[in-house]
Write a structure and sequence with these properties.
This protein is an alpha+beta fold and about 350 residues long. Helix content is about 40%, strand content about 10%. It contains 15 helices and ten strands. A four-stranded antiparallel beta sheet has the order 1-2-7-4, sandwiched between helices. The protein has a two-stranded parallel sheet with strand order 3-10. Strand 8 and strand 9 form a beta hairpin. Helix 1 runs antiparallel to helix 5 and helix 13 runs parallel beside helix 15 (about 340-350). The protein is elongated, with a radius of gyration of 22 Å. It starts with 7 loop residues before the first helix and ends with a helix. The structure holds iron/sulfur cluster. Iron/sulfur cluster binds near residues 164, 201, 202 and 204.
Length: about 350
Protein backbone atom coordinates (compact mmCIF):
# COMPACT_ATOMS: atom_id res chain seq x y z
CA UNK A 1 0.00 0.00 0.00
CA UNK A 2 1.47 3.43 -0.90
CA UNK A 3 2.69 5.43 2.11
CA UNK A 4 0.10 8.16 1.44
CA UNK A 5 -2.77 5.72 2.12
CA UNK A 6 -1.48 4.31 5.41
CA UNK A 7 -3.61 4.67 8.54
CA UNK A 8 -2.19 5.38 12.04
CA UNK A 9 -2.60 1.67 12.75
CA UNK A 10 -0.59 0.79 9.63
CA UNK A 11 2.18 3.16 10.75
CA UNK A 12 2.25 1.54 14.20
CA UNK A 13 2.61 -1.89 12.54
CA UNK A 14 5.28 -0.52 10.21
CA UNK A 15 7.24 0.93 13.17
CA UNK A 16 7.35 -2.44 14.86
CA UNK A 17 8.34 -4.15 11.57
CA UNK A 18 11.16 -1.61 11.09
CA UNK A 19 12.58 -2.47 14.53
CA UNK A 20 12.43 -6.17 13.76
CA UNK A 21 14.06 -5.71 10.35
CA UNK A 22 16.78 -3.58 11.93
CA UNK A 23 17.62 -6.42 14.33
CA UNK A 24 17.59 -8.93 11.49
CA UNK A 25 20.13 -6.70 9.70
CA UNK A 26 22.55 -6.84 12.64
CA UNK A 27 21.59 -3.69 14.56
CA UNK A 28 21.26 -4.22 18.30
CA UNK A 29 18.38 -1.75 18.64
CA UNK A 30 16.32 0.79 16.70
CA UNK A 31 14.14 3.65 17.88
CA UNK A 32 12.07 6.41 16.30
CA UNK A 33 11.95 10.09 17.19
CA UNK A 34 10.71 13.42 15.89
CA UNK A 35 12.98 16.25 14.80
CA UNK A 36 12.76 18.76 17.68
CA UNK A 37 16.21 19.37 19.18
CA UNK A 38 15.85 22.85 20.72
CA UNK A 39 17.73 22.25 23.99
CA UNK A 40 20.49 20.37 22.25
CA UNK A 41 20.85 23.14 19.69
CA UNK A 42 21.55 25.55 22.55
CA UNK A 43 24.02 23.14 24.13
CA UNK A 44 25.86 22.84 20.80
CA UNK A 45 25.96 26.62 20.33
CA UNK A 46 27.43 27.16 23.80
CA UNK A 47 30.04 24.46 23.17
CA UNK A 48 31.06 26.06 19.88
CA UNK A 49 31.10 29.56 21.37
CA UNK A 50 33.48 28.32 24.06
CA UNK A 51 35.80 27.04 21.31
CA UNK A 52 35.72 23.55 22.79
CA UNK A 53 35.64 22.00 19.31
CA UNK A 54 39.26 23.01 18.65
CA UNK A 55 40.25 22.59 15.00
CA UNK A 56 37.10 20.61 14.16
CA UNK A 57 35.74 23.42 12.02
CA UNK A 58 33.23 21.06 10.44
CA UNK A 59 31.34 21.09 13.75
CA UNK A 60 30.64 24.80 13.29
CA UNK A 61 29.87 24.62 9.59
CA UNK A 62 26.34 24.02 8.23
CA UNK A 63 24.63 26.50 10.58
CA UNK A 64 21.51 25.05 12.17
CA UNK A 65 21.34 22.04 9.86
CA UNK A 66 22.96 19.89 12.54
CA UNK A 67 20.17 20.49 15.02
CA UNK A 68 17.31 20.83 12.52
CA UNK A 69 16.95 17.60 10.55
CA UNK A 70 14.37 19.02 8.14
CA UNK A 71 16.84 21.74 7.09
CA UNK A 72 19.43 19.10 6.25
CA UNK A 73 16.99 16.82 4.45
CA UNK A 74 13.77 18.64 3.45
CA UNK A 75 10.59 16.72 4.25
CA UNK A 76 12.07 14.89 7.25
CA UNK A 77 9.54 14.40 10.04
CA UNK A 78 11.01 11.36 11.80
CA UNK A 79 14.43 9.91 12.45
CA UNK A 80 14.94 6.16 12.80
CA UNK A 81 18.08 5.72 14.87
CA UNK A 82 19.97 2.44 15.16
CA UNK A 83 22.89 1.21 17.23
CA UNK A 84 25.44 -1.56 16.66
CA UNK A 85 27.75 -3.02 19.33
CA UNK A 86 31.42 -2.90 18.37
CA UNK A 87 33.65 -4.75 20.86
CA UNK A 88 34.39 -8.14 19.33
CA UNK A 89 34.66 -11.29 21.45
CA UNK A 90 38.25 -12.23 22.32
CA UNK A 91 39.60 -8.64 22.22
CA UNK A 92 42.55 -8.22 24.60
CA UNK A 93 41.52 -6.71 27.94
CA UNK A 94 41.74 -2.91 27.60
CA UNK A 95 43.10 -2.31 31.13
CA UNK A 96 45.89 -4.83 30.55
CA UNK A 97 46.97 -2.96 27.41
CA UNK A 98 46.84 0.40 29.16
CA UNK A 99 48.99 -1.02 31.96
CA UNK A 100 51.59 -2.32 29.49
CA UNK A 101 53.68 0.76 28.59
CA UNK A 102 55.45 -1.10 25.79
CA UNK A 103 52.14 -1.75 24.00
CA UNK A 104 50.12 0.78 22.00
CA UNK A 105 46.50 1.38 22.96
CA UNK A 106 44.00 1.78 20.11
CA UNK A 107 40.40 2.78 20.91
CA UNK A 108 38.26 -0.34 20.85
CA UNK A 109 36.00 1.01 18.11
CA UNK A 110 38.91 1.31 15.68
CA UNK A 111 40.45 -2.16 15.92
CA UNK A 112 38.63 -3.68 12.96
CA UNK A 113 36.96 -2.60 9.75
CA UNK A 114 35.72 0.99 9.49
CA UNK A 115 32.08 1.02 10.54
CA UNK A 116 30.85 3.86 8.29
CA UNK A 117 30.36 1.92 5.09
CA UNK A 118 29.12 -1.21 6.82
CA UNK A 119 26.48 0.67 8.81
CA UNK A 120 25.40 2.75 5.83
CA UNK A 121 24.94 -0.37 3.69
CA UNK A 122 22.78 -1.90 6.41
CA UNK A 123 20.72 1.28 6.71
CA UNK A 124 20.27 1.23 2.96
CA UNK A 125 19.02 -2.37 3.22
CA UNK A 126 16.62 -1.28 5.96
CA UNK A 127 15.29 1.44 3.64
CA UNK A 128 14.87 -1.15 0.86
CA UNK A 129 12.81 -3.38 3.15
CA UNK A 130 10.58 -0.44 4.03
CA UNK A 131 10.26 0.35 0.33
CA UNK A 132 9.35 -3.26 -0.44
CA UNK A 133 6.55 -3.02 2.14
CA UNK A 134 5.04 0.40 1.37
CA UNK A 135 6.45 1.66 -1.92
CA UNK A 136 8.12 5.03 -2.46
CA UNK A 137 9.00 7.11 0.57
CA UNK A 138 11.55 9.82 1.34
CA UNK A 139 14.70 8.91 3.26
CA UNK A 140 18.39 9.53 3.67
CA UNK A 141 20.89 7.45 5.63
CA UNK A 142 23.64 8.93 7.81
CA UNK A 143 26.52 7.43 9.72
CA UNK A 144 28.71 10.16 11.12
CA UNK A 145 28.81 11.52 7.58
CA UNK A 146 26.83 14.74 7.78
CA UNK A 147 25.94 17.35 10.37
CA UNK A 148 23.66 15.21 12.53
CA UNK A 149 23.22 15.48 16.32
CA UNK A 150 23.23 11.72 16.54
CA UNK A 151 23.47 11.27 20.30
CA UNK A 152 20.58 13.62 21.02
CA UNK A 153 18.44 11.93 18.37
CA UNK A 154 19.28 8.47 19.73
CA UNK A 155 18.42 9.61 23.27
CA UNK A 156 15.09 10.99 22.08
CA UNK A 157 14.42 7.69 20.29
CA UNK A 158 14.94 5.81 23.56
CA UNK A 159 18.31 4.22 22.77
CA UNK A 160 20.09 5.63 25.82
CA UNK A 161 21.03 8.78 27.71
CA UNK A 162 23.98 11.09 27.20
CA UNK A 163 26.38 10.45 30.10
CA UNK A 164 28.51 13.05 31.87
CA UNK A 165 31.33 12.07 29.47
CA UNK A 166 28.99 13.03 26.56
CA UNK A 167 28.77 9.49 25.18
CA UNK A 168 25.44 7.68 24.81
CA UNK A 169 24.78 4.93 27.39
CA UNK A 170 22.19 2.21 27.11
CA UNK A 171 20.95 0.59 30.34
CA UNK A 172 21.17 -2.90 28.88
CA UNK A 173 24.27 -2.47 26.71
CA UNK A 174 26.66 0.14 28.13
CA UNK A 175 28.23 2.52 25.63
CA UNK A 176 30.41 0.56 23.20
CA UNK A 177 28.27 0.95 20.11
CA UNK A 178 28.03 2.94 16.88
CA UNK A 179 25.02 5.03 15.90
CA UNK A 180 23.37 5.55 12.55
CA UNK A 181 20.23 7.36 11.35
CA UNK A 182 17.61 7.11 8.67
CA UNK A 183 15.90 10.46 8.16
CA UNK A 184 12.43 9.90 6.73
CA UNK A 185 9.21 11.62 5.72
CA UNK A 186 7.07 8.81 7.16
CA UNK A 187 4.98 10.02 10.13
CA UNK A 188 5.76 6.95 12.25
CA UNK A 189 4.77 6.82 15.94
CA UNK A 190 7.68 8.00 18.10
CA UNK A 191 9.33 6.25 21.06
CA UNK A 192 9.74 7.56 24.59
CA UNK A 193 13.11 9.29 25.19
CA UNK A 194 15.46 7.41 27.54
CA UNK A 195 15.85 8.63 31.12
CA UNK A 196 19.29 9.50 32.56
CA UNK A 197 21.05 7.32 35.13
CA UNK A 198 24.41 8.87 35.96
CA UNK A 199 23.19 9.99 39.38
CA UNK A 200 25.98 11.31 41.60
CA UNK A 201 28.67 9.25 39.82
CA UNK A 202 31.59 11.19 38.32
CA UNK A 203 34.11 8.44 37.65
CA UNK A 204 34.58 9.42 33.99
CA UNK A 205 35.38 13.01 34.97
CA UNK A 206 37.93 11.92 37.55
CA UNK A 207 39.72 9.31 35.45
CA UNK A 208 40.19 11.38 32.27
CA UNK A 209 43.99 11.50 31.86
CA UNK A 210 43.94 15.04 30.47
CA UNK A 211 40.97 16.40 32.43
CA UNK A 212 39.06 17.00 29.22
CA UNK A 213 35.62 16.69 30.82
CA UNK A 214 35.66 20.19 32.25
CA UNK A 215 32.19 19.86 33.82
CA UNK A 216 29.47 17.21 33.68
CA UNK A 217 28.26 16.92 30.06
CA UNK A 218 30.94 19.36 28.89
CA UNK A 219 33.92 18.06 26.94
CA UNK A 220 36.76 20.33 25.93
CA UNK A 221 37.81 18.47 22.78
CA UNK A 222 41.10 20.37 22.70
CA UNK A 223 42.22 18.34 25.75
CA UNK A 224 40.58 15.05 24.73
CA UNK A 225 43.03 12.31 23.72
CA UNK A 226 40.71 11.17 20.94
CA UNK A 227 40.91 14.65 19.44
CA UNK A 228 44.65 15.01 20.02
CA UNK A 229 45.54 11.67 18.40
CA UNK A 230 42.97 11.66 15.58
CA UNK A 231 41.57 15.07 14.68
CA UNK A 232 44.49 17.37 15.46
CA UNK A 233 46.79 17.74 12.47
CA UNK A 234 49.65 19.64 14.10
CA UNK A 235 51.80 19.37 17.16
CA UNK A 236 50.38 17.86 20.36
CA UNK A 237 50.69 20.42 23.20
CA UNK A 238 53.68 19.40 25.31
CA UNK A 239 51.88 19.48 28.64
CA UNK A 240 49.41 16.86 27.36
CA UNK A 241 51.98 14.41 25.99
CA UNK A 242 52.82 12.65 29.25
CA UNK A 243 49.17 12.09 30.27
CA UNK A 244 48.55 10.51 26.86
CA UNK A 245 50.57 7.52 28.09
CA UNK A 246 50.50 4.70 25.53
CA UNK A 247 47.29 5.73 23.77
CA UNK A 248 48.16 5.98 20.08
CA UNK A 249 44.72 6.26 18.48
CA UNK A 250 41.82 7.49 20.57
CA UNK A 251 41.09 6.75 24.21
CA UNK A 252 38.42 4.79 26.06
CA UNK A 253 39.12 5.61 29.70
CA UNK A 254 35.85 7.43 30.35
CA UNK A 255 33.95 4.44 28.98
CA UNK A 256 36.13 1.78 30.60
CA UNK A 257 35.50 3.22 34.04
CA UNK A 258 31.76 3.69 33.53
CA UNK A 259 29.85 1.20 35.69
CA UNK A 260 27.20 0.80 33.01
CA UNK A 261 29.69 -0.96 30.78
CA UNK A 262 29.39 -4.09 32.86
CA UNK A 263 26.30 -4.52 30.68
CA UNK A 264 28.23 -4.00 27.43
CA UNK A 265 27.34 -6.49 24.71
CA UNK A 266 29.84 -8.16 22.39
CA UNK A 267 29.79 -7.33 18.69
CA UNK A 268 28.07 -9.82 16.45
CA UNK A 269 29.73 -8.36 13.36
CA UNK A 270 32.85 -10.39 12.45
CA UNK A 271 34.28 -7.43 10.49
CA UNK A 272 34.97 -5.60 13.77
CA UNK A 273 37.53 -8.23 14.88
CA UNK A 274 40.97 -6.69 15.59
CA UNK A 275 43.34 -6.61 12.64
CA UNK A 276 47.16 -6.89 12.82
CA UNK A 277 46.95 -7.60 16.59
CA UNK A 278 46.15 -3.91 17.09
CA UNK A 279 44.43 -4.72 20.38
CA UNK A 280 47.85 -4.66 22.07
CA UNK A 281 50.75 -4.67 19.57
CA UNK A 282 54.18 -3.45 20.67
CA UNK A 283 54.92 0.24 20.09
CA UNK A 284 58.36 -0.46 18.64
CA UNK A 285 56.87 -2.81 16.07
CA UNK A 286 54.15 -0.33 15.05
CA UNK A 287 56.67 2.53 14.85
CA UNK A 288 58.66 0.44 12.35
CA UNK A 289 55.81 0.28 9.81
CA UNK A 290 56.74 2.01 6.56
CA UNK A 291 54.24 4.38 4.99
CA UNK A 292 53.36 1.71 2.46
CA UNK A 293 52.79 -0.84 5.23
CA UNK A 294 50.66 1.65 7.14
CA UNK A 295 48.50 2.35 4.10
CA UNK A 296 48.20 -1.30 3.20
CA UNK A 297 47.47 -2.55 6.73
CA UNK A 298 44.97 0.15 7.61
CA UNK A 299 43.02 -0.09 4.36
CA UNK A 300 39.30 0.10 5.18
CA UNK A 301 39.98 0.96 8.84
CA UNK A 302 39.11 4.10 10.83
CA UNK A 303 42.72 4.27 11.96
CA UNK A 304 43.67 5.65 8.54
CA UNK A 305 42.13 8.96 9.57
CA UNK A 306 45.20 10.02 11.50
CA UNK A 307 47.45 9.63 8.42
CA UNK A 308 50.97 8.20 8.48
CA UNK A 309 52.52 11.38 9.87
CA UNK A 310 49.96 11.47 12.68
CA UNK A 311 50.53 7.75 13.31
CA UNK A 312 54.29 8.30 13.81
CA UNK A 313 53.64 11.46 15.87
CA UNK A 314 51.34 9.54 18.22
CA UNK A 315 53.65 6.55 18.61
CA UNK A 316 56.63 8.84 19.21
CA UNK A 317 54.74 10.36 22.16
CA UNK A 318 53.90 6.89 23.53
CA UNK A 319 57.54 5.81 23.12
CA UNK A 320 58.57 8.94 25.01
CA UNK A 321 56.36 7.67 27.84
CA UNK A 322 57.62 4.06 27.59
CA UNK A 323 60.17 2.57 30.00
CA UNK A 324 63.75 3.25 28.97
CA UNK A 325 65.28 0.44 26.91
CA UNK A 326 67.91 0.33 24.20
CA UNK A 327 65.26 -0.92 21.79
CA UNK A 328 63.04 2.11 22.39
CA UNK A 329 65.93 4.53 21.97
CA UNK A 330 67.06 2.87 18.77
CA UNK A 331 63.56 2.90 17.33
CA UNK A 332 63.35 6.64 18.01
CA UNK A 333 66.83 7.32 16.64
CA UNK A 334 65.86 5.56 13.42
CA UNK A 335 63.17 8.23 12.90
CA UNK A 336 65.14 11.23 14.14
CA UNK A 337 65.81 12.47 10.59
CA UNK A 338 62.31 11.78 9.29
CA UNK A 339 61.35 14.15 6.41
CA UNK A 340 58.32 15.42 8.36
CA UNK A 341 59.10 18.29 10.76
CA UNK A 342 56.11 17.23 12.85
CA UNK A 343 57.48 13.70 13.31
CA UNK A 344 61.03 14.99 13.96
CA UNK A 345 59.78 17.34 16.68
CA UNK A 346 57.87 14.62 18.53
CA UNK A 347 60.76 12.16 18.15
CA UNK A 348 63.15 14.78 19.59
CA UNK A 349 60.81 15.25 22.57
CA UNK A 350 60.69 11.50 23.13
CA UNK A 351 64.47 11.08 22.77
CA UNK A 352 65.03 13.78 25.39
CA UNK A 353 63.17 11.45 27.78
CA UNK A 354 65.49 8.58 26.86
CA UNK A 355 68.98 10.01 27.21
CA UNK A 356 71.88 7.78 26.02
S1 LIG B 1 31.17 7.07 34.62
FE1 LIG B 1 29.41 7.66 35.91
S2 LIG B 1 29.08 9.86 35.45
FE2 LIG B 1 30.38 9.03 33.82
S3 LIG B 1 28.95 8.46 32.20
FE3 LIG B 1 29.28 6.60 33.46
S4 LIG B 1 27.63 6.67 35.00
FE4 LIG B 1 27.73 8.71 34.08
Amino acid sequence: MPATLLSPHDYAMLASDIKRWARELGFADAGITGTALGEDELHLKRWLDAGHHGEMEYMARHGDKRSRPAELEPGTVRVITVRMDYVPPGTRNAWHVLEDPEAGYVARYALGRDYHKLMRNRLQKLAERIHAAIGDFGYRAFVDSAPVLEKALARNAGLGWIGKHTVLINRRAGSYFFLGELYTDLPLPVDEPASAHCGSCRRCIDICPTQAIVAPYKLDARRCISYLTIELRGSIPEELREPIGNRIFGCDDCQLICPWNKFAQEATEPDFAPRHRLDGAKLVELFGWTEQEFLQRTEGMAIRRTGYEGWLRNIAVALGNAPHTQEVREALLARAEHPSALVREHVAWALARHPA
